[in-house]
Structure formats: structure tokens, C-alpha cells
Write a structure and sequence with these properties.
The chain is an alpha+beta fold and about 270 residues long. About 30% of the residues lie in helices and about 10% in strands. The chain contains seven helices and seven strands. Keywords: Signal.
Amino acid sequence: MKSISFALFGLFTVLYINGLPVNVKNNDGSDCLYIFDANPCQAWYKQQGNSTTLVNGTPTPPCQISKTFTSPLPNVAGNWITDETCNPKQIIGKCLFHPGAYGCYRSCVGTTGPSGQACYDENGKFIEQSQPGAGSVDAETICGNSPTQDVKHFCADVLPYILCCEFPGTSSSDNCNKYNQARPVGTCQAGWAPIFFCIVLELPWFNYLIFSFMQLLPQLSMLIDILDLIFYNHDLRNYLQINISFIRRHIMNTTVIATGVQVHPTQN
């Protein structure tokens, strides 16, 4: 423990000499003074406020993303960009702080203050609190390429994790639980849209009467394909059978009801 204190004391001496301020108004541990306590994890935990306030102050990530892990995440509020500490494209040193995750994103909506971190498995599914590799909300963002902010993030969010969950002599299951309470994963949100009905009647080149999407995600390209099939007399049923795996992969929390009736012109 003394070696940690001396090493960090040297770090902050260098930062002080270079004129980098490390104190902040928020008492979130970003001043790193808790390291001088006999139980640094407990001292850090006592500094933390209500974690619900922290979660509510950060954007909510999507529950499902594309397996291509594009950056930033398209059509999602919060400017979610790839977390370079857990980038799927990395080969060495990937996800050291989130073992079990395939890749993580950070929400960069400001250059200071809290931000969100969301981690996903290889299928693009959000990793929740109780699962290995889950992300967390951060009291201090690492966005903005600021050395000062990097130090704040290290003191408020990274070093406490090391001391509470990883470092021999200071880590324990109880301390790690305290860290997870103060820096929870948060929640995710599933995309949805109002009920959409397309009712087709009468004319012979309309093959089907009813096609209903309930809580459909905005998969516009698929919708355009379906409209094309309806208006140009293609076989909609075969299309659905061929593309059902696509629909299952890319539409979450969606109920699809398709009823087909062949319509023929009346014979006089």
C-alpha cells in the first residue's frame, strides 16, 4: 500500500509542477486524496453521491447494436463512440477492464463531467450489470483529449476499480460490490415505433390483404423492400421465409403478424 501511495504522490507532484489542476468541485474522488487512507476503497466510496443521479445524468445506450460495431453509433442520441480500451479491432490488451466483453462504447456529450460506458457481446447485445464484461457510468468523462480530464477520470473511475476489485491487499468482494454500486452499468433502451398497418384490397396485383408490424424498429430499407413486393406482385410469403433470420437478428422486442390472402379478379 505504501508503494502505491509513493508512486501516486510522485505522479501528482509531476502534474503539479506542470500546472495541471486536479481538484474539482464535485466530491467524486477525482482529487485522488482517498489513496492516503488506510482503506482507500472505503474512503472513495464514502465520497460518492447517489448513483441514480449519475445514471440519470448520462445518455441511455441501445440494447442491441450492429455486429459491425460502427463508430459512432448511428441514430442514437449521446454521441456513442468506440472505447479504445475495449475496441473489437484490437488484438493485444483488449478489454482488460471488461473481460468478457467483445467491445465497448463511450458517450461523449461533453468534455467534463459524467459519461456513459456501454459494453456488448459479439452478437451486439448489451451486457447487463450481473454479467461479465459489463460497462459502467463514469463520474468523469475521458472525452476531449484533455490531460487534466484524463487524470480526473483515472482518479474518479479507474483507480477505484483497481483498488476495490483487482489490487491484492485492498480488493475484496465487498469492496468490489461497493464499486459496482457507485458506478453501476445503468440501463439500455430498445428502439420502437408506433403500430403500422398496411391494408391492401381488391386489385389483382395486390397479393395480400393485411401486413401488420407492431412495435417495429425503423428498418427503412426492409420496409421499402416490402412495399416493392406488394406493388409489383412478388411473392411476399417467400420473401419473409428467406429473410426471417435477418428479421430476427435486427428487430428486437417486435411482434410480426403477417396474414396473406390471394386476391383474384371477379369472373363475370
